[in-house]
């Protein structure tokens, strides 16, 4: 029995290839060599705000975000621009606002009514289901990236990896089936 260590820092893919890291969940295009790659679900992005914020600031159309504080993440600096281009909200400038070190901080600021964050549905499933956060437009964007289970080909027959893989794929399937938007 060995301990499980969880790390939120994206791993070096070579550590996964070599087996130093047993498994990783990575966001990307799924094109990593030397590893087993299994898609979990697509990355869906869309603006999120708190329910209280929405009561005081109606958001019926994306252009109405022009008067809203946009919350950005240094980890995903292009998300707002990508979403604005995808929905065709040409009058909305995706720059400005507040920059946070990570997405979790931007999401937390949105929960507290500071403004609108570009939400990753997979990371916010609990907040969206509980109503702590609301996606006012229902216009998710996917840039072709997804979350993937990645592990060394050397470990493909390891019973621990097989067991974890089976559990995680079942969880991902359940998430996808209950998600408002399918992957």
Tell me what the structure shows.
The protein is of the alpha/beta class and 183 residues long. It contains six helices and eight strands; from the N terminus they run αβββαβαβαβαββα. The protein has helices spanning 13-18, 51-56, 79-87, 103-111, 125-130, 159-178; strands spanning 23-28, 35-42, 45-50, 70-73, 98-100, 116-120, 133-134, 146-152. The protein is elongated, with a radius of gyration of 18 Å. It starts with 12 loop residues before the first helix and ends in a 5-residue tail after the last helix.
Briefly, what is this?
The chain is an alpha/beta fold and 183 residues long.
H-E string:
HEEEHEHEHEHEEH
Mean pLDDT: 89
- Rg from C-alpha positions? 18 Å
Count of alpha/pi helices:
6
* Terminal CA distance: 35 Å
Into which percentage range does the β-strand content fall?
A: 15-25%
**Major sheet, described briefly?**
5 strands, mixed
- The dominant shape is elongated
The stretches of 5 or more residues where confidence is low (pLDDT under 50) are none
Helix content: 25-40%
Q: Which structural class should the secondary elements be placed in?
A: alpha/beta
Task: Give the strand order, joined by hyphens, for the main sheet.
Answer: 5-4-6-3-7
The count of β-strands is: 8
